[in-house]
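Customer ticket, subject: "Can you confirm the structure for ABC transporter permease?"

Message body: Hello, I'm evaluating your service for our small team and ran a test protein. I'd like someone to confirm that this is what the system normally returns, since I don't have a reference to compare against.
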Amino acid sequence: MLSLALRGMRTRWVTFVGSFVALALGVGLIATTGLALAATFDAPERGTERFAEARVVVQGTDEVKADTPIGVRTSTLTNPRAVPEDLAGKLATVGPVAEDRTFPVSVPDADRRVGADTALVGHSWAIAAATPYRLTSGRAPTSPGEVVVTTGPGAQVRAGDRIQVVTPEGAGTRTVVGTVPAAGFESAVFFPAAEAARLSPRIDRVTVDADPAAVRAALGTGSGMTVLAGEDRRRADPDPDRDKEALVSVNALLGTAAGITAFVSVFVVASTFTFAVAQRRREFGLLRMAGATPGQVRRMVYAEALVIGLLASAAGCWLGRWAAPRLASWMSGQGIAPTWFRIGEQAWPLHVAFWTGLTVALCGVVVASFRAGRTGPTAALRESAVDSGTMPWSRLLVAAAVLLTGLGLLVMALVENPGDVLKRKTYITQPMLLIVAIALLAPVLVRPLTRLLTWLPARLPGAVGMLARENAAAGVRRTAAVAAPVIITVALACSLMGTTATINEAKAAEARTQTRADYVVSAGDAGRALPAGFVRAARAVPGATVSTSRSTGVTVLEEGTALVRSEARAVDSGTDLSVVSQLPVVAGKLADLDDDSIVVNEEWLTTRVGDRVPVWLGDGRKANLRIAAVLGVGTGNNGVYLTARNAAGAGVDRVDIKVAADADRAAVDRRLRAAGEASGVEVLGAGQWIDGHYPRSSESTRLGLLMILAIALVYTGIALANTLVMATTDRVRDLAALRLTGATKPQVLRLVAVESVMVVVVGAVLGAAVSAVNLLGIRTALGLLDVPSAIVVPWSTVGAVIAASILLAVLAATLPASFALHTRPVELAGMRE
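Agent reply: Thanks for trying us out. I re-ran your input and got the following:
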């Protein structure tokens, strides 16, 4: 059987080249994404960065610990407590100390002036000795108004220059008296110790030049402080887990890409193999007529799949090794992955890709081989090109089961928890079952759908529309095989991009509904604060109600086993909050929020107004707070609300301002904007602020989705080319018959092109049907969550995908047909398969 299979492969090489290319590309894509995914599992090992020169660092405890029946559970605090001044003085008796104060600052045009590639922070120069910073020009700052700045690539600032610096006090001009090279982990501005203490009274850390044991003894027990020495000093670095956190989104993106790649490749390769076997039914009939048993025919098909699988999987692994570093470089260049992201030397992704490819090749011909084995000897005598028996009962039952499962899971999610439908894992995986179901049903759907879509073209003058309609309806297997990759690509494009856009638009609509404020001022970057001067100036404006809020978090022990941290906003009072916002309260009243209470949402286990819930606050304090109100879940942005007293250590990062109905709005606007200009912050109308923040997906998310669509589109192009080349090569006698009846070459090519376009349109309609179900599920979930929003269809993306598919299909069908038409029609008509 192996020798017979090899001879058959040599004779029908066009058919097997298509299967080889499809499988090799699939394995290559799996290997590429697998290698990139493997590189996200381990972040680079970095030693202590900022406090590399310090012997001991003392800071507030930065995590919560809870003993549970299944072990100790920990959670990171959002606002670790400060080091008390008296404790800092006590540590000075153990050894020389330096107080570290870190606060947000900004410099206009900082990327050009000082070469900053991250947000600027302010420090006291007194701490510089414990860090890697060393003066490269100028001197240390000694008087108020003097600063030392870090200088990165392209920095234009020099010692002696005067620059505008926005501090927590507001904007002001300062003299640069020295520069230090940027360390890579932050961009900083250093102030004299006395000025830093005035700008930021909070002591974040203290470095001590003493033995760690002596420092711990001086602190005693119950101080709430953590002593860091040796490698532990890294916990005091700015965002010490930034490398791991940077890889989380990359890991999620590549995991999604790998899953979709595997799905698309398995799906398309199986479809290609099935079509290739179906094309050879007359050949199998001849073998049966020659005495081959059904088992021998099946073994021959398996032997062919084994040879193709081995060769294509090996080629795909080579392709993956070549493409993975280039993918990593592109992701780094586009900001999707960190600049240091590189492909490692892992071999297991190549093993996974190779054996997946071989398994797909063998599994892809399981059903087809049984069908080939059942081919009767009389099939060799068939001359009709009309497909029959394309939909066995087994396939119909499987398709129905998959379709009902997909719809059932969607309905179950909508009934039990509509919010789950909005999560990325759900709206990415949900279309997969529907795509499989529609593709399995394609042989049943394409014929009536083709006749429906071509009803009008078939009645136009000329025979092209009628012939294209009948050819597509007669060659059901060919039509279904060509439509399959189009179904996948259109469904993914519309579902992924449409769902993301719809959810973003829903978040924007929700924000507009919940905002009563006339102006919103925010600090921008996470962890930054607005200048206190602006807050004071805004409160002094007559006719304006000002509500400040802070980013913080609360941690709760759920069911006695899991520490769950929730993002929270700390506001001045519930009364001011109710003036500037209209949150979806389902129980209780916002105005009842005070220092002894909390506002939660319906996702919390305890949601009865008046009940008390034990929580850890952002600085680690434990509190037993009364539930004042409960909010609806919405799109997921309705978090927890506390008062400012329960968010010690968090700075004001947002100000909502409501103008009274009888106030002079023009005067209020002038005073607010003047205060913003003096403080170096931008005052925006509520509508402007919402438009600037919603709906917005991060650039890395958008590029990631486009990368996934590009993978699917590339595979669609290869699959279309393979299938149409095989199909067109197999139809040379049909083309010759058209030529013998008087059709010219341009007419035949036009017929082939129209038929290709029609089949792509059929696939696009089926893919759109899958997307419609998915988007309808999203819309229903939003309705159940009381978030009214329209469905957003990414027409430009879907149109581009369909146009690219049409172009590829036309080229893949007309080029081999054009070459075939170079032969005389009489010779083509006499050719045998």
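A couple of notes from the result: The radius of gyration is 34 Å. The chain has a mean pLDDT of 81. Feel free to reply with more questions.
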